[in-house]
Write a structure and sequence with these properties.
Structural class: mainly beta
CATH architecture of the largest domain: 3 Solenoid
Shape: globular
CATH class of the largest domain: Mainly Beta
Order of helices and strands: EEEEEEEEEEEEEEEEEEEEEEEEEE
Strand content: 25-35%
CATH topology of the largest domain: UDP N-Acetylglucosamine Acyltransferase, domain 1
Number of strands: 26
Radius of gyration: 18 Å
Helix content: under 10%
Distance between the termini: 40 Å
Length: about 200
């Protein structure tokens, strides 16, 4: 069953998956796809043709501009922004108001299980890797590796994080361990992989 608040604005051509809840004042634009079992918070915005996977949470006032692509299980925190304009201007060099034909939208891609913290800004075009975490208030201007934790302005990697959302700790053998689940990861050439894949 889909739950859509009476105060939300969902385009007729948007596709909403079963079990998804769309809360007050949220807007889902034309041609957008939102997967199953998602939560779209109060005042959240999903632009035209944006794709949101299954089991995602977009918290209050999250702004996801087209042509963003979010994998399954993505978390977008309150007031986080995924931008889409490389050269933002309201007017052309001649001083006339820009129209849709005066620019080309570029998107942010977010891998499965990744989290974008409250108030973070992801400046398109960037890719956030699977299970990565962008800290609250960070400004992401370059791609983020899978399982990386990034923070700051501009965002820089500060460590590794596991699927459970806990920072990984390096053991004496050089592999990385999740303190919550005991899962082990290995780092190969600056990339982190679950130990069974490494």
């Amino acid at each position: 069953m889909i739950t859509i608040s009476e105060t939300s604005d969902v385009a007729d051509t948007a596709r909403i998956g079963d079990g998804t809840r769309v809360w007050h004042l949220a807007q889902i634009r034309e041609g957008a796809t939102v997967g199953s079992n998602c939560t779209i918070g109060r005042g959240a915005y999903i632009g035209p043709e944006v794709v949101v996977g299954d089991n995602c949470k977009l918290q209050n006032y999250a702004l996801v501009y087209e042509p963003a692509r979010l994998g399954d299980g993505v978390f977008v925190g309150p007031a986080a922004v995924l931008t889409n304009d490389l050269h933002p201007r309201a007017v052309t060099p001649e001083g006339t108001l820009k129209s849709a034909s005066d620019w080309v939208a570029v998107g942010v891609t977010v891998g499965a299980g990744a989290s974008i913290g409250a108030g973070a800004v992801c400046v398109a075009p960037v890719r956030i890797g699977e299970w990565a975490t962008v800290a609250a208030g960070a400004v992401v201007t370059r791609d983020v590796t899978a399982y990386a934790v990034v923070a700051g302005v501009p965002a820089r990697q500060t460590g590794w994080i596991g699927k459970a959302g806990h920072r990984l700790k390096q053991d004496a053998g050089g592999s990385w361990l999740c303190p919550e689940t005991g899962s082990r990861y290995v780092e190969i050439d600056g990339q982190l992989l679950p130990a069974e894949m490494g």
